[in-house]
Amino acid sequence: MQGRKAKIDPVTAQVIGGALENVAIEMGHKLARMSYSSIIRESEDFGAALLDAQGRQLCESVDSTPLQLGPIPGYMRGIFRVMEERGETFAPGDVVMHNSPYHGASHGPDVGFCVPVFRGEELIGFSFTTAHHLDIGSLHPGSTGIVDAVDAYAEGLQFKAVKVYDAGKKNEAVWQILRDNIRAPGMVVGDMEAQIAACRAGAERFVEIVEEFGLEGVNAASEELMDYSERMLRSRIAELPDGVYRAEGFIDGFVDSPNENEKDLKIAVTLSVEGSDIHVDFEGTAPQVDLPINMPFEGTVDVAVYLTIRSILLDSALTEYVPQNDGLTRPVRITAPKGTLTNPIFPAPTIARFCPGNIVADTVMRALSEVAPRNVSAGVGNLKVVAYSGLVGEDYWVYMDITEGSYGGRYGKDGMDAVDTLFANTRNNPVEDIESHYPLRVDRYELRDDVASGPGRWRGGLGSIRQISFLEEGRFALEGDGHRFAPWGIFGGEEGIAGDLLLNPGTDGEQHLPSKIPDRRMRAGETVRTVSPCGGGYGDPLQRDPARVLDDVLDGFVSEENARKQYGVVLSDGGVDAAATASLRERMAGERA
Amino acid sequence: MHLVGVDVGGTFTDLVLSDPEGGETYTHKIPTSGDDPSEAVIRGVYEVCRMAGIEPSEVSYLFHGTTTATNAILEHKGAEVGLLTTEGFRDIVHIGRHQRPQNYSIMQEIPWQDRALVKRRHRKVVPERLSPPRGEVLTPLDEEAVREAARELKEAGVEAVAVCFLFSYLNPAHEERAREILEEEMPGAFVTTSSSIFPQFREFERFTTAAINAFVGPKVGRYVRNLRAGLKEGGVRADVHIMRSNGGVSPSEVAAESPVTLLLSGPAAGILGGAFSGEVSGRRNLITFDVGGTSADIGIVTGKGFEEAGARDTWIAGFPVMVPMIDVSTIGAGGGSIAYVDEGGAFRVGPRSAGAVPGPACYGKGGTEPTVTDAHAVLGVLDPEHFLGGNMPLYPERAFDAVGGLAGKLGMDVREAADGILRILNNSMANATRAVTVQKGHDPRAFSLVAFGGAGPLHAVEVARILGVREIIVPAYPGINSAIGLLTTDLKYDAIATQFTLSTDPDLERLNADIERLEGDVRAQLRSDGIAQGDIEVSRGVDCRYVGQGYELRVPLPEGR
């Protein structure tokens, strides 16, 4: 024990912690099973959590994505703020809808639903879900690739702590306005109802736990679990040398823009460690732009910072189980100058904040790499999110496809191939699901083996190639990043490979496109190929185990020529020529010096 | 008639011989043989026959629970596997669902990437393509390309191949033709198709299931051959029937064709044993609670039989497995689970276990860390005079030392710490039990808890209290309950086909034709197993969901057209 006297015995604290987490998991199951859109039921782009009466997160569903879970306390603070301004209070039977990115929401399409939990007259906490919705009434179909929105109003409907059920009574007018102003309303409203049902189930179970252990017991256990998570993170921060660590990352921005201020945008991170505290500051980051790659400070930037620090210093594969709760935010302070990409001023648009947020996370990791070299990866490849849509009669179909990035090499391990990255962790949609529901055909879904991923002692992970054709006329829009800047190499490793986007590859009309494409019309037969980046290398490639290089050659990831050029490994007769490899590596090392 | 049940566990091979027409029941326990578990099985069968005073040739049926497939996947020691798939989709089994297994980890492993079932060099693509909704052929199968791939795989020393084409669940023709060609070109190889294992959508999960089948296939095949040969040599005439994950048995040769269905062979036998014990007590709603040294397996039995897991929810060794399985919730909590204080000051128990070596401190075999068994020893629950029937010495003073060290760190006295170990463990077990009861809509208060395995009865009362369960049943032979379960089972086959249809506008012609075909297949298999027509029972079901949702509920389908 760290000299701190817990108010509850450690055994009961563990028991209550397990029971609370079970509730959040159950909420997640319910939501996934009841929802209609593949973005929720297949891609798991949702979050579920319980909070205490002060809005502090107690537990979360493990079957969902960090970028939906992390922002929930921010949504709650936003709701508190708005309701206080209006002089409103919570009543039993309320359901509150909220998606304002200037009041804690992650971005407009991630709509939060909040059910206050009452025991009798007493407000004891909140049951909360978030989920990404297919359409929220933006200027064109879908809720991704809205890259030409000029302000928050163009992004779609904004809900600021709206009671869609008021003391148990359904607010029909709000639902009607909603239905009339979004595309694919059947699906979207069905998904929202699933969120509410999951919240209500969570609220009931929360009350049961309080009945069983008493409110005092649950509160004391919650305090202890938050303190525990805080202590764990503080002990790891304290192991780092005090100091100021800096890193820079760049986002593509809009490379086809005539405005220089809209491309090659800098994210600057200054990370200071002092004792068991970390301060992350974004001074030096590019100013905000009139395009939706600004990031809500609360809901995107803070989440990217918290989750990256947690994943590095309290890596769940290497440490004890540490509950993801409010305690993990206490040792970390975040500041960003107003009017920058990382702290925009209303009504700057933010809807396409996902990919820039990944660069924030990646740059925070880079800043920590110097002092936590065995817990970071080299540069991470960013991903792309695509909206496919079309009309059948007067009705829209909308499909949202999340592609994947890749991780850089790690100490002792190559980078993870073709995965969702850093502050998100969704799932792809099966080819067999896509083609069964939409007039689309998936032509290809494979790893990139046309290039060598970032060479290193442990090489970068491989990106993917995903190619989808329209079987009927439709529309397409895309948000992505990582075309201009390859993922960084580290400790002697080389940089990875940038991503790409092709229209109608292999035809006369083949075109390379930038990483942000506003809505465009697509003819039947037209094809989109997304190519994700490959991660950066970790450590000197000349130190890579020749057997691993041989494996990569046999598996088609590295050519024999690159084995020689990049790794100094000579192959003969299907094996490694040890003597030739040793002398080649010696010569290459000499030339380098 | 003499029935023999043999259950092979990690440490012990348990046997039971029974005469259902009123004779005596004999039980036997011998150490599991490491390299080839069939040795102990064969020896055990002879020994239990000798105990009963019968000849091996007098055994009428032999039922067997095996961990051969389970261990091959858990230890990642399987065959060199090849995969034949649709051109453009070479890496489905590597990319998976593009989701990292853990949300908050940079250094994590991804099982399908770090422990690939099929190396990329052995993943071959061929031109062919089907499309939904009916599996129409867009691109015919390029048979020459299949032949070429087969030759390359053979050359590379591949011994098992999984054939995995997109949309094969709608039309298996391409997979079947490719299988024929592979069998021609690679005689002796183990060839499997994804549509024959589990014809449902979601390609990563279906392909991975087929790849696991190929990965464990040759090993299970060898094991079954050794077992059959050894038993035959010793005069056993009865065929071996193997317990499958679905809770039924099938003849060993049939089981060896789809070994992916054997991954839960052991736990399934346990649940059936629990069900039997409940039945003889006249109870229909049961929680089966099987606790050993390192893990606890918890299952549910109701008047309708045991529960089946949703195929989406079953994972083994980090891989998704889409085959019918008994619903069992397994946690790393048992008698050997180690208690400790972590670096943040939290009091934890398991999942690390002291195992058989060094074992709990009180066994006196060199263990020094406090375990659950030590907590029992401290609290006087275990009687040193009668441990394992008085056959095993117990050293409670060593338990006091081990638990005392932990108590010091927690600022507790030794009994408080011992009590705390049990409370934490019991609550973990209760949470795992909630996963198969409350979370599936069963109220545990309406169930009896059947406690077995070495440590089950020790924890049953407390777990029952936490869950509100009112009754506990301890079987007569809790230590060999799984072997007894084997004797209570039926031959059982699952047959599945996928066809999407609206309940408001069903294609009844096609539905009836499909159902009749499936039923005919299953009946033919059972008749070839020697089962009389009158003894066959068929149950039918459809998986239903609301239009647009993605998860189904199984609804029973009455007989008739």
UniProtKB/TrEMBL annotation, chain A:
GO terms for biological process: glutathione metabolic process. Residues 9-541 form the Hydantoinase B/oxoprolinase domain. Transmembrane segments: none annotated. It comes from the Bacteria. GO terms for molecular function: 5-oxoprolinase (ATP-hydrolyzing) activity. It holds the Pfam family Hydantoinase_B. InterPro entries: Hydantoinase_B, Oxoprolinase-like. GO terms for cellular component: cytosol. PANTHER family: 5-OXOPROLINASE RELATED, HYPOTHETICAL 5-OXOPROLINASE (EUROFUNG)-RELATED. This is Hydantoinase B/oxoprolinase family protein. It comes from Rubrobacter marinus.
